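Internal QA ticket QA-208
Title: Verify multi-chain structure generation after dependency bump
Assignee: T.L.

Test input:
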Amino acid sequence: MKRGTPNAYRLGEIVARLGGDIIGDADLVVTQVAPLEHARADQVTFIASVKYRGKLQQSAAGAVIVGPSERDSTDKPRIVCTNPYAYFARVSALFNPMPIAEPGIHPSAVVDSSAIVPASASIGAFVFIGEGVELGENVVISPGCHLGDNVVLGEDSFLYPQVVIYHDCMIGSRAILHSGVVIGADGFGLAQDEGRWVKIPQIGRVVIGDDVEIGANTTVDRGAMEDTVIGDGVKLDNQIQVAHNVHIGDHSAMAGCVGIAGSARIGKHCTVGGAGMILGHLEIVDNVNISSGTLITKSIKKAGTYTSAMPFSSHPDWLKNAAHLRHLDDMAEKMRLLEQRIIELERKKS
Amino acid sequence: MKRGTPNAYRLGEIVARLGGDIIGDADLVVTQVAPLEHARADQVTFIASVKYRGKLQQSAAGAVIVGPSERDSTDKPRIVCTNPYAYFARVSALFNPMPIAEPGIHPSAVVDSSAIVPASASIGAFVFIGEGVELGENVVISPGCHLGDNVVLGEDSFLYPQVVIYHDCMIGSRAILHSGVVIGADGFGLAQDEGRWVKIPQIGRVVIGDDVEIGANTTVDRGAMEDTVIGDGVKLDNQIQVAHNVHIGDHSAMAGCVGIAGSARIGKHCTVGGAGMILGHLEIVDNVNISSGTLITKSIKKAGTYTSAMPFSSHPDWLKNAAHLRHLDDMAEKMRLLEQRIIELERKKS
Amino acid sequence: MKRGTPNAYRLGEIVARLGGDIIGDADLVVTQVAPLEHARADQVTFIASVKYRGKLQQSAAGAVIVGPSERDSTDKPRIVCTNPYAYFARVSALFNPMPIAEPGIHPSAVVDSSAIVPASASIGAFVFIGEGVELGENVVISPGCHLGDNVVLGEDSFLYPQVVIYHDCMIGSRAILHSGVVIGADGFGLAQDEGRWVKIPQIGRVVIGDDVEIGANTTVDRGAMEDTVIGDGVKLDNQIQVAHNVHIGDHSAMAGCVGIAGSARIGKHCTVGGAGMILGHLEIVDNVNISSGTLITKSIKKAGTYTSAMPFSSHPDWLKNAAHLRHLDDMAEKMRLLEQRIIELERKKS
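Actual output:
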């Protein structure tokens, strides 16, 4: 695995590749990205908000990426662009490309003879590739990965070590799957029968679009009868559970520890904060943001931000207040009765 | 791994195997199960509730499994039985049996010479099997699994790729363990000593009954001094954490992302919804249902359903309401004072 | 892997090694630790609190570890010490040492020629060790582990099967990492650009101190530009997610299913109960205890215990009370109006 020395780039070369305007020395050479506080003279940083203007003054960074509003807030050589944070991400990708794996199949790998493995693919040690698997050009399958029968994986996809993909699942191009990801395990399909659980075979697949990244130890279950579907450009963080038959729309993103129950349908361009939980058989429209720690119990039909988190407090304060949570109905009833007594008093008064 | 072409069955053959009554053409051949909306003429579907009667009218399914109440709600060939959903599960298992793995030991597997491995067992590539392991007939150990010393695994059990079972753990017959499952890791046993943590060796085991299924990336810790015990017929979904010394009673089921803290004792026939959390050292009787997102903080002595979820709302509404959660005690006190003033007014009145 | 028969120790030998005073027969031989209820005559137990004094009377244990206050509450041979629970942990470690793995490299392991692997190290089957890896003396790398390029792992560290450590991460001495742990996967770093997510390369590392234990399937992400840092003596349970750039102070401990969002800074000697969630970009001082199921949404500047859990109740009671949670603001407003009417009545009265 070659991670290669980061190259050095002149600001002019960066702008030639990624657009934007240079103010100051276009020949300045930078070798890496760095945060405002710790950037050195041979590094480039960025500010995405006016509130970091103060820190920018003190930064030792050689160059900075700024938005139009910060065009003149520094004397440093700078690149002006409309979205400094996204621009910065692209500059960082120039300096820090995905590692390059040597093409070829490690002698310890077990690859079924029916699998399609392009010469450009890199298959690591202890990899198992089942019957009928189809790999795209330049895929990297790191050591210890398991691809079940008939898995399809699109070009330029990168599997970190010890990813498991069950049989028949399909993953698009440029996927990044981190270690411990399990795609296509059986959904939790059970029928009750006289106090015992009868397993319902899970015969759907997982179908994942292009440009999807899935974090470490995240699980996406196969569909019960139809497919679990993850759209293009979806980004899932670590330790997420996506249950059977869920649909996640294009370009939605979910932070760590999220759970999505069976048959939920999440729209496009949604976000779910850490540990958000979405119950099953409900529908969430496009452009919905679920706050961290929020439990969604019914469909959401209108774009916007939704929250259910209980505010924390010191434990003694919590004890005092939480006791009333079990008596809110009594409290409301008591208030109704007080009002009646007030009405009675008012009536007598008049 | 052979998943085999689904067989075709005549309705009459299905009923001969699984019971129930046929109304209509017993010679109709079906080849797969499918949901109401998408079933074709060569497929069998089911309805478990009268509310789907309308969809049944429109379904193209060749046959349908119905309960007694829906006996006459369609003209299609149908199987009438008492529990259509469980019946459907069994029909699906006819069409979609567990995959059949070739018996034998893959040449890359490392199997200790003291291990008992029946000729009917299938041991995949890169499997590690320690000293004194005992495998039952027909077990399938998929590639990359690890069975520590003295593990016992009952007949017909199926381990998907990359399951880890630590030393001395015992698992019954017909278990299904999905990828990333870790059985028998150390429980979180620590003693405080002058601000430092001293590890308490975890010397118990995990003992799991028959007919247990455990979902991807779920972890079950070994007992501290005695065993962690999971009863017969228990079903655990993905990403669940079962801590040391927990007991889970027979035929209980838990959805994804559940956490059970140390030494909790869960009864039989319980269910826990997604992301439910159960604290340690408490007892839950049989037939308790914990709702999704609910935190159980003390023992439950009576069967029934229990809930603690905070309802969600739009973020602006939440902001308005949540602020009061930290002041419920003030609110209750204020109400008490208002009532006193009303009493005073009423006293003066009379 | 040798777990070895537990040795027998005379009480006198134990005290010679670990300190404390013996009352009674110093030559009594014990062979294992056990809980009060089930200890036998050749086993040693402990009581950490006066409330177990009754159980101690009935215990068949041969010997007991007690604190000064329980010095005379039994006739059994006993060891008196200041912290019986921590003492018990150390006695248990005498009887149950970490397993001893044979030094050497399993022939199936793939170890880069540039890696530093001491002769005392044990490298299991199917292990992958990348370029420039440095292992300390006596490390145990169990089967199926993956150490990416330039990983550094301190002496006496023990990796259970199927741990993944990404490139460049550093782990101190005496670490214990359980199966399914993933150290150094990419953090969730994304920039929005016209409705699409642009990946921000994660170029920091994970740097972990000495004496750290990490539970099964826990994930610790590498830093975005700088490092994710875990201090000395930190203990993490199973299924925890630690996001990029998090700092966890020395000797803090976190129970199962906890999530720590990006750039959170947790102090020393903190604890987080099961399923606690800590949002990103906030700071928690030393000696803070977060209760189970609690969501921390802003910095905590004062040591103490903090809680946000919603109390559970039977589902019908919950339905009754939860409905009001969405109307607390109305309720407060109503109370204000009632008070005004009371004031009016009082005014008229006087």
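Spot checks passed. The radius of gyration of chain A is 27 Å.
Status: verified.
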